[in-house]
Amino acid sequence: xxxxxxxxxxxxxxxxxxxxxxxxxxxxxxxxxxxxxxxxxxxxxxxxxxxxxxxxxxxxxxxxxxxxxxxxxxxxxxxxxxxxxxxxxxxxxxxxxxxxxxxxxxxxxxxxxxxxxxxxxxxxxxxxxxxxxxxxxxxxxxxxxxxxxxxxxxxxxxxxxxxxxxxxxxxxxxxxxxxxxxxxxxxxxxxxxxxxxxxxxxxxxxxxxxxxxxxxxxxxxxxxxxxxxxxxxxxxxxxxxxxxxxx
Length: 247
Prior knowledge:
By secondary structure, the protein is mainly alpha-helical. The chain contains nine helices and no strands.
């Protein structure tokens, strides 16, 4: 059985988001305020991971990692050297791995759980940062839109991998086929399919929007990524957190 909890999902989100802060700022002249925004946002989410663990049960290494992620994110709030931005996600990665292994029982489950959680971490981080970066263009409108496009393209590349790991046995094929009960009469499986397709469409439309010359295209892309976050969370976090894998 594989069953994630809110603490692991929130740590995934914080870790992936902080990694893509480094990915975005490593070679681009984005204002320092963007780093403050991202670090502060994901520090709060990491604190939420610790609070969730307090409510539902501790996994010591995972939850200590989440606490360190929050502290490091706040501690590096005003640093300008982007290399520091790798510290928090690397610490978070340790907790994410432990959370994935804790969610599984048995060797086969552990491998599948680890793949799903790691890929989900990257996917959630990329799609969330794409939306936040789109908003930053309101503050720094002179930014080349290629920076946002690079991040959205990263989401495009990760999405097929995310879909594949969710189909790994016993995965969504089993739910759709009825051999695994999702607790909703199969509806959860079809909802997942709809989320996967909708996310793919939103990503492609966003990339297309960014080819337009007008500044409003960036705002349109940001709005589309708002929607993509909703479908991505259904695709990754909400479905994974409630889908028990029966072997």
